[in-house]
């Protein structure tokens, strides 16, 4: 497929600087651009590449000021990152979609499979599972019995939906397993990354609401609930019965204690440890235990000085002891 700069500019509502007939047929990072490719620039630290890239067309923010001419055709837009995402979605939509059940997949006879569903090789679909229209299940995905998957859901390779929640009751002989008799419900337009695990509930449902995007290697424990359009980066983990609100953003390796509620539009920094309810919409937290970023960075600045402060404290203690001795000697 080949497009001109003029066609692209019309699609993303951008303004052309340069040759409107420049043709592109692939995407490339700006530092790896070649003739016939389109790149984008949204991070200022990559600005120097614009003067040396071989890309034919570059999407760039309207606000960027250049110090010298460039050879590529520029398309200025309000947000280059959003525009390239829009183009990638168009490109992906033009590719033929996989449908059908691979011969190497297992689908229980009692499962209900919607229209235009793809189930890849070595995927396992258990008893009484329901899968909505337009869902894509990649190889080696396991969906345990009774779970419900909505429409246009994407589940990447190796993900496990509906394994037992981690429930054990201690007794004198060790630990007694608590049966996990609930299910997992995944609503429409959710994407689940590779090797992510979403446990079935002890009773009731573990729920992933509409539009949620989960990265690879995420753990969602039993009876958790993730609100609409929340996004979560790799290796984040939720303990049982955690409830995360709508439109939250969670950084990689963040952890959540059980039985807490995270309010809508909360921004959780990478490696944060969230151990209590958050205060309200728009709150930003970081660190472990997670606190306000301003407080966190002030505390970190003090941490760097702790060795010097410790030495100064010991010197002061010695001086105080000397003064005590002198006072007693008088």
Could you walk me through the main structural features you see in this protein, from its secondary elements to its overall organization?
The chain is of the alpha/beta class and 330 residues long. It is 18% helix and 27% strand. The protein has helices at residues 5-12, 80-94, 293-329; strands at 3-4, 15-17, 23-24, 26-27, 37-41, 57-61, 73-77, 100-101, 106-107, 112-113, 118-119, 124-125, 130-131, 136-137, 142-143, 148-149, 154-155, 160-161, 168-171, 174-177, 183-186, 191-192, 197-198, 205-208, 213-214, 219-220, 225-226, 231-232, 237-238, 243-244, 249-250, 255-256, 261-262, 267-268, 273-274, 284-285. A hairpin with a 2-residue loop joins strand 19 (168-171) and strand 20 (174-177). The mean pLDDT is 95.
Short description:
The protein has 330 residues and is α/β, with parallel strands linked by helices. Helices cover 18% and strands 27% of the residues. It contains 3 helices and 36 strands.
Mean pLDDT: 95
The largest sheet has its strands arranged as 8-11-14-17-22-25-28-31-34-36
Oligomer: single chain
Tell me about the biggest sheet?
10 strands, parallel
SSE-based structural type: alpha/beta
Poorly predicted runs: none
Morphology: flat
Radius of gyration: 27 Å
Strand content: 25-35%
DSSP helix fraction: 10-25%
**Helical element count?**
3
Distance between the termini: 96 Å
Write down how many β-strands occur, each being a DSSP E stretch of 2 or more residues: 36
